[in-house]
Design brief:
Layout lengths: L2 E8 L3 E10 L3 E11 L14 H20 L4 E6 L1 H5 L3 H12 L4 E2 L2 H16 L4 E6 L4 E7 L2 E8 L3 H8 L7 H15 L12 E5 L1 H13 L11 E3 H10 L5 H4 L13 H15 L3 E4 L4 H10 L11 H12 L4 H17 L1 H4 L3 H13 L11 H11 L7 H12 L18 H19 L8 E9 L4 E8 L4 H8 L3 H7 L2 E8 L4
Parallel strand pairs: 1-4, 4-5, 6-9, 9-11, 13-14
Antiparallel strand pairs: 1-2, 2-3, 6-7, 7-8, 10-11, 12-13
Helix pairs in contact: 1-3, 4-11, 5-10, 6-10, 7-10, 8-10, 13-15, 13-18, 15-17, 15-18, 16-17, 17-18, 18-19, 18-20
């Protein structure tokens, strides 16, 4: 039976609650998410006293979360507080007030714990094996090293966007002298973190609302074709440009910057400058944005608690199967389509010359090609395309996500497969590979037309010199409908490979 869990993160700038439904080892999905700007650190300055207005905003948000938890019949609640509460001299009375209002015991995370859970969320969403995770919030930034896929040493520094704004920058018009003082302070803080340096093969991943908002500005300006921010590569020069631009605008003008959330307009110059300095210090030429972070790390710690380490053994495979299970896929049919398409890929390797990474994407599309049927069967290939593009598949890059969606989109329908609006994020080799992979999945789909696995296997025989190939469909019974449908859908593969294709029926004789 599905279980439900709520994760609450009371941060220095915003507080969020996410609610997950899950079945351990099978799937999880985000059911709800609610965000409230509480500005808990606002007015603390160097006194580290939580102010009355900020306390009341936080209490109001917790009451709202409590009502939603009760209405949605959540089984368990995990609630944590981070930098502002950690620093506050009046934190004990504040936490006692929340307990009195909600019955929740908020766990106050240390800086090291905050870094660990944030990195755990990022690692379980990006396949990060070696590098660092940055989590820049309202009150602090956590820098966590990742080696062999495991979060390691962490440091928490007082470089949060709200804290830096209050200490160094004017509310409206910011002066060059203020930004110079801000940069000097950030460099001073980073000077002792000599281990935060890029090594060959390292990747830098960033989490948190500030980097997601900066990335959204960049996406808007570049007419990025996907709505998702997850997996977006943000170049150092583009971060530096925003860091040099945003502080020059008045607060009113900042609120009108396309892609920038109005409720973050006052703190985004500090955030951009901090990220610029973090990249300069570490030597990375850019970073990858992970949407999952602290809250997801807390969830994964719970969801994967039965494993030796709270890490997915095969993140990419689980991500595909989790989505398929959520949408009630036909397990035997989808896996057999993926198998037949993989057989075509392997037997025709000498012809198409594509590397093994495309085979993995072909498998993923084979598993997900029919998920759109839950909306309705007519045009389900288009619904599958939309679902795949708009559902965050952890472990896959935006480019890979686009290819999976396109292969699923063209597993049926007429016409030559084209990348269309997704072309800007594909490589030249991807564009060449697309019709080949679509031709394979289309043929596999029709050889499994009756959803009964009657075509058990395939054998391909190629005569490149004379321009033809034969596909032998090994049947374990009457496969008339499968062969009839497949015969009518050879064109895409034939055209993509530049070979005449003939389909013949063979007899399956077992292993």
């Amino acid at each position: 039976m599905p279980e439900h869990i709520a994760i609450i993160d009371l941060g220095s700038n915003t507080t969020r609650m996410v609610i997950y439904e899950y079945e351990r080892d099978r799937y999880f999905r985000l059911l709800d998410e609610i965000r409230e700007v509480v500005r808990l650190r606002e007015g603390m300055g160097r006194t580290n006293v939580l102010r009355a207005a900020a306390i009341q905003r936080a209490i109001n948000a917790m009451r709202m979360f409590k009502e939603l938890v009760e209405d949605t019949h959540v089984d368990e609640v995990i609630a944590v507080a981070t930098s502002a509460v950690r620093d506050a001299v009046n934190r004990d009375t504040f936490l006692a007030r929340i307990h009195a209002e909600t019955g929740w015991e908020l766990r106050m995370l240390s800086g090291e714990e905050e870094g660990y859970y944030g990195a755990l969320g990022a690692v379980n969403a990006t396949c990060l094996r070696s590098g660092f995770v940055l989590d820049l919030g309202g009150g602090s930034v956590q820098i966590t090293e990742v080696r062999e896929g495991l979060p390691g040493r962490t440091i928490s520094l007082p470089l949060g966007a709200l804290r830096l704004t209050e200490l160094f920058l004017s509310p409206d018009r910011i002066s060059p002298e203020q930004t110079a003082s801000l940069r000097a302070f950030i460099r001073e803080q980073l000077a002792e973190v000599d281990w935060f340096k890029a090594r060959p093969g390292d990747t830098l991943v960033a989490i948190g609302g500030a980097i997601r908002n900066l990335g959204k500005i960049d996406q808007v300006r570049k007419h990025y074709p996907l709505d998702s921010i997850h997996g977006y590569r943000f170049a150092r020069e583009d971060i530096a440009a925003l860091a040099d631009e945003l502080w020059r605008y008045s607060l009113k003008k900042r609120r009108n910057v396309r892609g920038l959330r109005a409720d973050r307009a006052d703190i985004m110059p500090a955030a951009a400058i901090a990220y610029d300095e973090l990249l300069r210090h570490s030597g990375f030429d850019g970073l990858i944005i992970s949407r999952p972070g602290l809250r997801e790390g807390l969830f994964f710690d719970h969801f994967l608690s039965h494993l030796p380490q709270p890490l997915f053994p095969d993140l990419r495979q689980f991500s595909i199967l989790s989505l398929a299970r959520i949408f009630g896929y036909d397990d035997p049919h989808s896996h057999h389509v993926a198998f037949l398409a993989g057989r075509l890929f392997d037997d025709l390797q000498s012809v198409h010359g594509l590397d093994a990474s495309y085979r993995e994407l072909l498998w993923a599309a084979g598993i997900l090609h029919d998920v759109g049927a839950i909306i309705n069967y007519p045009y389900h290939h288009r619904h599958s395309y939309y679902i795949i593009l708009n559902y965050t598949l952890y472990g896959y890059t935006p480019r890979e996500l686009a290819l999976i969606a396109l292969i699923a989109r063209f597993h049926r329908s007429k016409g030559n497969p084209k990348p269309r609006e997704l072309a800007p994020i594909l490589t030249r080799e991807d564009v060449r590979a697309l019709p080949i992979l679509c031709g394979m999945i289309r043929l596999a789909e029709y050889l499994e037309r009756g959803r009964r696995q009657v075509i058990r296997d395939l054998r391909c025989h190629v005569d490149v010199d004379n321009g033809w190939m034969q596909i032998e469909a090994l049947a374990a019974g009457n496969a008339a409908i499968e062969l009839w449908e497949a015969e009518r859908n050879l064109e895409v593969l034939s055209r993509a490979l530049g070979l005449e294709v003939e389909l013949v029926e063979g007899v399956w004789v077992g292993e």
